[in-house]
Design a protein that fits this description.
Blueprint: H1 6-28, H2 37-57, H3 61-64, H4 66-90, E1 93-96, E2 98-99, H5 102-113, H6 116-129, H7 146-165, H8 167-170, H9 177-188, H10 194-199, H11 204-226, E3 230-233, E4 242-243, E5 246-247, H12 254-272, H13 292-316, E6 321-322
Parallel strand pairs: 2-6
Antiparallel strand pairs: 1-3, 4-5
Helix pairs in contact: 1-2, 2-6, 2-11, 4-5, 4-13, 6-11, 7-9, 9-12, 11-12
Length: 335
């Protein structure tokens, strides 16, 4: 049994209280909970999951690896904004009832998108701590040949391009693009790689990520369904059979998306020359980690990329706004 830590208890309690209050206020129609319910629910879940992980093994992402956790936040925003920009062409979803006050709306985007990587990784780590696939994680060893790694990269490029050229028929491929494109790069360059796990016959990580993706997908859609500010799907062919706002077959995209998130962040760590978010991660490259000036420059670049992307989301993806007071009593609906 892991040693008790009051911080973990307080953190988990804060998450539970936040989730309870947010749900109660949502159904009462009280702002900001009605419009920002998704943000409240996801961050509450992340706090709760992290505290459970710490209680079970005495180590967690937020409490023990705070620096790694903080780096997940900006890269989570970047990752999801890539898909938002792609959606401008694919037109698979749009946003409704978005706060009309720009500063609050853009802060809301950032808070919501920053949950993607933490949510998936906390869920995956929780499943691993619970030992869900510890007995079934051993399987066939796979030793990838160079030619197949090259084929995978080419496939990843095609998976990225064809949904933009033929969005009506090829849109599902976009969720596989990072897996096929970046995983061979991580493997080739000596970074953290799922293929290295498969060389040892260890499938536990993949099983865990796939399951975490499905769990997070269900939570994303469940919490989105009840929120006032929400996204609505317009994907072709599958609109007749829905679970919450998502067409039922669309849930098949969440497992590969979770694997893609893991591969994407491993690639980012590889480029930065630093360890990942997982416990015991060493330097991935035998060179200096990006220094503080470079980190500041990188965060500045991410900041301006986010602002430009938010502007494009407002212009192309938001279909309706909720009129709010344009001061910091922003959540009071105008009569």
């Amino acid at each position: 049994m892991a040693k008790k830590n009051p911080i973990a208890i307080i953190q988990g309690g804060a998450g539970l209280v936040t989730l309870f209050i947010a749900a109660l206020m949502l159904f009462q129609g009280v702002e900001p909970f009605a419009s920002w319910f998704y943000c409240f629910a996801w961050w509450a879940y992340i706090l709760i999951a992290d505290s459970i992980i710490y209680e079970l093994k005495g180590d967690s992402l937020i409490i023990s690896r705070t620096r790694e956790f903080l780096w997940l936040i900006p890269w989570s925003v970047v990752l999801w904004l890539i898909f938002e920009l792609l959606n401008i062409i694919m037109k698979n979803w749009y946003y409704a009832n978005v706060i009309d006050y720009l500063p609050a709306r853009w802060v809301g985007y950032a808070i919501a998108y920053s949950t993607v990587l933490p949510g998936i990784f906390e869920t995956a780590e929780l499943l691993a701590v619970l030992g869900l696939f510890s007995r079934r994680g051993k399987g066939r060893q796979i030793c990838p040949e160079k030619k197949w790694l090259l084929v995978s990269c080419i496939g990843g490029v095609l998976f990225f391009i064809t949904p933009l050229l033929f969005p009506r028929y090829c849109f599902p491929l976009i969720w596989l693009s990072f897996v096929f494109l970046l995983e061979p790069v991580n493997y080739w360059l000596g970074g953290k790689s799922l293929l290295k796990e498969l060389e040892k016959g260890d499938w536990q990580k993949i099983y865990t990520l796939i399951t975490a993706g499905m769990i997070c997908g269900l939570l994303w859609e469940f919490w989105n369904y009840w929120a006032k500010t929400k996204w609505i799907y317009t994907v072709p062919f599958f609109q007749d059979f829905k679970l919450f706002e998502m067409p039922a077959l669309g849930y098949l995209g969440f497992p590969p998306f979770a694997v893609g998130c893991y591969v994407f962040y491993n690639f980012i760590c590889l480029v930065q020359g630093q360890g990942g978010w997982e416990r015991g991660e060493a330097m991935l490259m035998k060179r200096r980690t990006v220094g503080y000036p470079a980190q500041i420059a990188l965060l500045t670049l991410i900041f301006f990329f986010s602002l430009v992307s938010f502007k494009m989301i407002d212009a192309y993806t938001v279909k309706s706004f909720s009129r709010m007071e344009s001061n910091w009593n922003i959540f009071t609906l105008k009569k």
